[in-house]
Design brief:
By secondary structure, the chain is of the alpha+beta class. It has 3 helices and 5 strands. Strands 1-2-3-5-4 form a 5-stranded mixed sheet. It binds coenzyme A (COA). This is N-acetyltransferase domain-containing protein.
């Protein structure tokens, strides 16, 4: 499992999750769900009442399917300019504070 994870609190108060990666040979075995739930648990404990969001390239259909499966709602679509000088469409997914809290409660059982 790759454990590269990054969190940040955005200016709008939501928790931004970044860099969710599972080793290719370990995909589809529940690790991504575990990592996301771990992030929800951290967010609910450290920043109760805050939503969690993340951004994914629109063409990353595998990650998008995963986020939809785990209840993420599309809250924004935009085109991002990358430092190398190219533009790519990006989709933002959000889990509201109630969902984040419920997932934390499930983990604690
Ligand atoms: C996206 C990623 C983190 C998902 O992790 P994972 O460990 O493979 O996902 P899980 O095994 O925990 O899957 C959880 C659920 O999502 C579903 N799912 C996962 N990948 C899916 C896919 N490509 N298509 C459809 N459903 C998918 C699983 O079937 C499972 O559903 P279930 O509730 O019916 O069992 C992983 O594929 C990955 O590291 N991808 C490459 C890096 C990347 O793109 N990261 C996102 C950057 S924003």
């Amino acid at each position: 499992m790759s454990r590269r994870r990054k969190y940040a609190v955005r200016l709008d108060g939501r928790i931004l999750l970044d860099n969710l990666h599972v080793r290719p040979e370990r995909k589809q075995s529940g690790i991504g769900r575990e990592l996301l739930n771990h992030a929800f648990g951290w967010a609910a404990e450290r920043h109760p009442g805050k939503a969690v969001c993340l951004e994914v390239l629109r063409d990353n259909s595998a990650a998008a399917a995963f986020y939809r499966r785990l209840g993420g709602q599309i809250t924004k679509e935009f085109v991002e300019r990358f430092p190398a000088g190219f533009d790519l469409p990006v989709v933002e997914y959000t889990w509201d504070a109630d969902t984040v809290r419920e997932r934390r409660a499930k983990m604690a059982r």
